C-alpha cells in the first residue's frame, strides 16, 4: 500500500509538471472601425491581427460601424466603452465633433490620437483646357462627395468657402453627390470639375489613388489637376476644419506634371481621453514595433512610417499613454 501511494503521488506530480502553465488572460479591447472596404477598415483588421498574434497583454475584438461620426458619438455617449474601446477617426471629424457641426447635432468631446494610419489627399480635377487654377472655376459646376463623407465633401467645400473670396464661392454650382458619382459626372461631362485624391505618406511622398481617382484617370480624358495653394489650405485651417498643408509630388498620378498643395486629413486610431493610459501605451507600442508589417495586409499599409504615426499632431492632442510610447521610441 505504501509503495502504491508513493507511485500515485509521483504520477500526479509528473502529470502536473507536463501541463503547461495557463497563459495569462488578455484584456479585450474593442476596435470600432469604418464600413467594409475602406482604407481604415483594412488597416484596422491588420492591427487586430498584429496585436492578437503578438506578445501583448491585450487582444483586439474588431467591429465594422457606419462610419467615423458614429464612432465619436459612441464614445461620447457610452462611459463604459471609453474604458475598453478604441475607434477609427480623423483630425477632421474630431474638429467637427468639437465644434458641434454637421453631422453632429451638438458639441462632442474630441478624441485623442493613438496612431495615424493614413493621410488623405483630395483636390479638384478638370477636363476643361481653359480652367488652369481653382480661381478659373468661378461660375462652374463642381461635383464632390456628400457632406458626411468628410474628406470628399465637407473638406473640399470648406477649402472653397474659406480659401477664396465670398463672391467666388457663391458663384459655384456645387453638387454633393458622392465619391463615385462625382467621378462619373466628370467623365460624362456633366460637371466642369470633381474631387479626386487618395492616400499618402507625407514623409516619403508615396501616394496611392482612391478608387474614384482610378476611374477618372482611366477615362482617357486629358485632365488638369488644380492646386489648392498653400495659402488657401492655411486660411481654411485657421477659420474652419483643421487641415494639414502638404504637397502631392509630381507624377504621383497620371497627368500631374508639377507638385500641388492639398489640405491633408489624418486618419487613424483614436480613444477617448478617459481610455486607460497603459492600454494606449501598449497599442501605440504595437504600431511602432510592427510598422512594416502593415504593408503585408494592404498596399495602404506600405504608406505607413514611424514618423508618419504622429506627423502633424501636437502632443496635447495625442493620448498621454501613446505619447509616452512615442517619446520612448525617439519619434517625439
Automatic annotation (TrEMBL):
- Protein name (database record): TAXI family TRAP transporter solute-binding subunit
List the Gene3D superfamilies.
Answer: Periplasmic binding protein-like II
**Residues spanning the signal sequence:** 1-23
Keyword list, A-Z: Signal
Q: What lineage does UniProt assign to this protein's organism?
A: Bacteria, Pseudomonadati, Thermodesulfobacteriota, Desulfovibrionia, Desulfovibrionales
